[in-house]
Amino acid sequence: MHTRKTQCSSPRAVAVSRLTVITILALATAACSKQAAAPEPVRSVRTVTVSSGPVGAVVDYAAEVRARVELRLSFRVGGKMISRPAGLGEHVRAGQVLASLDAQDLRLGQDAARSAVQAARVNHEQAQADYRRFKDLRDQGFISAAELERRETTFKAAQAQLAQAQALSGVQSNQARYSTLVADTGGVVTAVEAEPGAVLSAGSTVLRVAQDGPRDVVFSVPEDQAGALRALQGSAGALRVTVWGADSVQLAATVREVAAVADPVTRTFVVKADIGKANMRLGRTATVTVAVRSLPSVPAMIKLPLAAVFEQQGQSSVWVLDKDTMAVRAQPIQVVGAEGNQVVVAAGLAPGQQVVSAGVHVLTPGQKVALYRPLPAAWVASAASDAAR
After folding, report:
1. Cα separations (Å) of 349 from 50, 290, 354, 359?
2. Alpha helix locations (H) across the chain?
3. What pLDDT shows up at residue 28?
4. Of residues 367 and 385, which shows the higher confidence score?
5. Residue 269 CA neighbour count, 13 Å, CB half
6. Are the C-beta atoms of 215 and 275 separated by less than 8 Å?
7. Residue 142 half-sphere exposure toward CB, CA atoms < 13 A
8. Taking Cα atoms as reference points, which of 72, 91, 61 lies closest to residue 272?
9. Which residues, including other chains, have CB under 8 Å from residue 338's CB and lie 6 or more apart?
10. What is residue 56's predicted lDDT score, i.e. its pLDDT?
11. Is the pTM for the entire model greater than 0.90?
């Protein structure tokens, strides 16, 4: 006969099992009872009503004061430069000697040309005398007409040789005179490109001289503004120029020239504006203010405050207010430019819509909002008085 053994659990094991069951039930209950999310706060916002108007812009460009005419002076003959009295920044007058070449070889060439003239003159005189004698002999019948013609031909050839020698002598005289570089007109030396001791070829620039007279402000504009600047060309006082420095001045300027071809590197167009015979140092920094008005072919566009625009997924957008539900929605727009603190919108909005103009970065799609209303002045004054106490 087998004896059956019965194993009884201890009181401690029973207590641990009950505690485990209670814990599991508590966790399951917590998981099932999900806490409700807090509602979105109703934010106060400022809005603007969309309206269309003409597009205009005030654009500033960095500019520089330059002379209307800047000469690149060079020698008309080659040689070794031995002196350069004119220096950078010096004011020169018409007829002043600016630089000189070693003219020894040029003077020798001039002497040789003079000697050639003297020889041609003697030959001419001899041929002329022979022709006269043979003409007398022909008149007396001692020589033939053919012999006289040969003497006449010799005389005419000598006459031509004399004229040629005289012309070459004049050229050599000019060459010797070209060894001295003289200022054609008064101006200021803006650059020095050769120093004494340098061997120069004919036409190599030695100095650059800004001619006295009218002054221009020179600046560059992008391709999309070149047409507007051309439209202003010739309009007196169309630009405002501020010349900076210790004695800053403001001047009116007229667009004189707009480059026909864009710079190959910057893709900008050079603009030159006339400021008249203003007495100011060349190279001074200036700011050109251009008021670009809308062209007849450009329709009226919508302008919004810059603070109303934000970027969403790489697209410029604004918050549009639904007046019935007082909720906002994101609306993509197309921005085509700026005008001061406003942006110019070409597409995406219609006149009459209300757009949030402040606090755009704290809003979410469908969020309820309230229109901001400033506190009465009396309440503000009372609060300030209480705070002072």
Report:
1. 8, 28, 10, 19
2. 11-32, 104-140, 145-177, 223-231, 377-388
3. 56
4. 367
5. 18
6. yes
7. 6
8. 61
9. 57, 306, 344
10. 55
11. no
Tens-place pLDDT, residues 145-156: 898 899 999 999
**Nearest alpha carbon to residue 183 among 94, 99, 100, 101:** 94
Angle between helices 145-177 and 104-140 (to 10 degrees): 160
What does the chain come to in residues? 389
Burial class of residue 273 (count of CB atoms within 10 Å of its CB; 0-12, 13-18, 19+) = buried
User: Is 16 in a helix, a strand, or coil?
Assistant: helix
Distance (Å, whole) CA 13 – CA 20: 11
Nearest to 64 by CA among 210, 232, 265, 194: 210
pLDDT at residue 164 above 80? yes
Tokens representing 361 are 């970065």
- Looking at residue 5, what is its pLDDT? 44
44/328 Cα distance (integer angstroms): 12
Q: Which residues pair with 72 in a beta bridge?
A: 208
Residue type, 338: A
User: For residue 296, what pLDDT is reported?
Assistant: 40
Written in H, E and C, the secondary structure of 75-131 is CCCCEEEEECCCCCCCEECCCCEEEEECCHHHHHHHHHHHHHHHHHHHHHHHHHHHH
Beta strand 43-49 with 369-371 is parallel
- Give the pLDDT confidence of 361-382 residue by residue, as tens digits: 888 888 888 887 765 555 545 6
Q: CB neighbours of 385 closer than 8 A, spacing ≥ 6?
A: none
